[in-house]
Amino acid sequence: MTVQDPQDYFEKWVAEARSGDRLLMVLDPEHYLDLDDELHTRRRSWRVYHYDENDLAFRTAYSSRPADPNFRHIVWVTPSPFRRSQPGRLDLSFMADVLRRADRVLDLSLAGLLRVLLPGEVFPEGGLQAYGHILSQSLQTVLQGHRELRREIGQRQPLDIHHVRALALHCLQSDVPVSDYLFTHANARDLLTHYLRLVWSGRIEDQALPLLREQAAHSPFVSVEELQPWFRASPDELALAVYVYCALRRYRVRNALNQLRGLGMLTIDPTTLEAYLDTAAVMWEDETLRMALLQGAEAMLDPERLGDLISLLPLSDLSAVAEALRRETATALVCGLAERFLLLWLRGGATDDILVDELPLGLVLADVETAYSDRAHALLASIREMGFALDRLRHPFCAAPDLATLVDWYVKSGVHRLELAHALAEEHTKKLVSDALHQVLQEYLDRLLRRIWDYLDRVNANLVNLVSQSYDAFLSHPRLSIHVLADAIFRRGFRPTQERCVWILVFDGMRWDSWEETVLPALTRDFEFVDEGKPYVSLLPSVTSVARTGLLAGSAPNGWRAADGRHTSNEAILAARLFDLDLAERDRWLRIELASERDIVQRRLGGDFDRRPVNILIYNISDDWVHGFQGNVAAINSYIAQRMQTVVNDLQRYVREGDLVVVTSDHGFVGLDPEANVLVRDKESSDQSSEEPVGERVFYRYLVNMKHSAGLSVPFHGDRFFTVAKGRTWFQREGGRFARYSHGGISMGELVVPGVTMQRIVEPFVKLVLSGVPRRLEVLEKEPQTVSVRLRNMGNRATKYTVTFDTNSELEGQTYSGTLGPREAQDLSYSFIPVYTPKATESLVVQVTYSDVDGQGKRLPLRSCSVTTKPRKDVVEIDFGGLDQLDEL
């Protein structure tokens, strides 16, 4: 019989009553039941009379029962309400006459139930009295736990209160095996280890913890007097003690226990834990337990105490702090070390080379959320982004000899993300807890931004010079964006059909950092590269009405012709001519959707959307709205990321296997320098006879039919021309206001756009390739060495990876982690200083773990490198090992 609790047992017992049963008597000494005056089963109804040792009340009610001999009723007997605090016994001295007439009698006591459910088993009475309230509510769990218990202890050993308590714990938390609740260890050290594994495993819930402490403290085989402080403290208090103790030992702080006591961060006296602290500290090496230790300990570690702990660590200079930061994984300690790193660097004059050379790359935080996780990620990200910017800035800019070289360098060197790196560092700085650090770091970031702008000004000046040398050569350059569609479709030999469509995605206003950091990762979840393409250059002025029209026309403005030869800027007509479609074919073969607002997308890309051979979808990713946006470029990318879900949803619905997807942009945008404004008045117009109001010819980044020495004049069509602003300067009309972002001028941010081809992923896969691991190294003692490798994802899905460099010597290893997108590669290095030992040849092992498309952990084959260290004859080693132990005496 499957029984959940006494109520369930009672109901099944009544349901099985025989047809001739008229009087059932239920003895309920623990008062498990709560019955009404009437009880209805599927086949019968019963009247219930309650006897709780009040004979007068019972007899009065019972004597008025019907005289019908077939009257079915139940007499329910419970203890007197005045003895509820001592359940388990019933006084039946006045109930003999009823007992004699009863057709069936049910003993609903826990002992009675167990005798039926587990015949032949003997439970200690004291155990049932102590834990019966728990056991009785989970009878089925008791039965299952009893089977496990007997398998563990054998059939012959009698049950004692320790076993009953284990069953009670199993009832409170049945996902933990009964065997884990048996503390039958031969020594206190093993018992404590088992207890800590349980409470730090995260499996023990609060309701079971007090009983678990009681079980451990009453071990039947070990005297646990010295362990009582461990049982009295909460798991988080113990975790904090071990966390701090391990940190002090890891950094070789002298008199670690005394220092722990002096910190005053524990709610328990660490001296009472001293005898077994080393036992608990060993558990830090267990990866699973360390996660729980981190979470529990850092929940109790306030920032002030963390600062006290960091101040104890013997880290004398920036290099020492950086080295510690490279190897630390405890989230709170990473916070403390990162903050010290930044403060030392800033107070030391914020020298670029120091930050770049000491930059703690490849930092690995424990994969668990703690109270310090957000702050740790913010600090590390801020350091990494500043390090990236400074590393780029310390390489002097050398002017490129031609446009293609400049554009390729701009993308490959990472210069395109300089402003983004600064913005990300600024965003992360806002999350820092320390006001002092936040203020001094923001002041530095303000200075860094000015340096970035100066650097980009030199790059933009090179661009202006190359374009201004010959504008005709610029218009015929193969990297001009008017060639994107020809390169991606026609030169590839792709012929759009109803079955194999081409989808041209134009992300209006998207510049390269948004493409690389936000748009591309969103697309590669469902699409893979056919061709990674190359960066192109937008038409001038870099505004939609020129740049996008030229992109879809496949020609400069002087080639925008309708079928009758007249000049036109109608994008549908120009795109149809590009695909050689006549007027009759255009509506059937070509679709252009301007998805600048989501309501338009919903209406036009609804269920009735019909695929055409050529589909042009234009998404306003960062065009018109960016003019009034006040956040930095990191905030712009965050906004774009939200919009990309709309794009991906559209593409998932309509793009099929075999279709070709061309992704590009018409132009980007630039952040204007508030101090680089050029006031434009009417007298500066070269066309004084024009009736066009000056205000309608002056825009932030260009002038219409007006010349100005601060800009570059470029022809459009006929006698129309534009004067485009250079770099980050901008034209201010009289009474006009500053705008943070704009486009239309000539700068790398506005002109450099992507042109790639993709297709729907049919078979997603991840394929990592590790290269560069040498087979052997012969090194000289004490001579710094670096081993550099490259990890590349040859698959079509992004993956998270971890790369570990490890040695079989006393040298510490190094771990890196990160994410690799499709076709992306990451260069990683391991630096070490060889130490000569008379041992056999040592080895360096490189291990790569990653996640496949289903999120399952995978490993690449181990790659090893033998390392032979030759001794230097000018080095004499004296071993002082063990002297530090004298401090403990």
List keywords for this structure.
alpha/beta, six-stranded mixed β-sheet, 889 residues, 31 helices, Alkaline Phosphatase, subunit A
Account of the protein in words:
The protein has 889 residues and is α/β, with parallel strands linked by helices. Among the domains are: 103 residues; 212 residues, 3-Layer(aba) Sandwich (Alkaline Phosphatase, subunit A); 66 residues, no CATH class; 108 residues, Immunoglobulins (Immunoglobulin-like), CATH 2.60.40.10. The strands form 8 sheets. It has a 6-stranded mixed sheet. β24 and β25 form a beta hairpin. α26 runs parallel beside α27.
Helix and strand arrangement:
Layout: H1 6-15, E1 23-27, E2 38-40, E3 45-51, H2 55-62, E4 73-77, H3 96-101, E5 104-107, H4 110-117, H5 125-135, H6 139-153, H7 161-172, H8 188-200, H9 209-217, H10 228-232, H11 235-250, H12 256-263, H13 277-282, H14 287-300, H15 303-312, H16 318-327, H17 331-347, H18 352-358, H19 373-393, H20 403-412, H21 418-429, H22 435-469, H23 471-475, H24 484-490, E6 502-507, H25 512-523, E7 527-531, E8 536-537, H26 544-553, H27 571-578, H28 583-589, E9 590-595, H29 598-604, E10 614-619, H30 633-654, E11 660-664, E12 670-671, E13 677-680, E14 702-704, E15 711-715, E16 721-725, E17 730-733, E18 741-742, H31 748-751, E19 752-753, E20 755-760, E21 768-771, E22 776-780, E23 785-793, E24 799-807, E25 814-820, E26 825-832, E27 842-851, E28 857-859, E29 863-870
Parallel strand pairs: 1-4, 1-5, 3-4, 6-10, 6-11, 9-10, 13-17, 22-29
Antiparallel strand pairs: 2-3, 7-20, 8-19, 11-20, 12-18, 14-16, 15-16, 21-23, 23-26, 24-25, 24-27, 27-28, 27-29
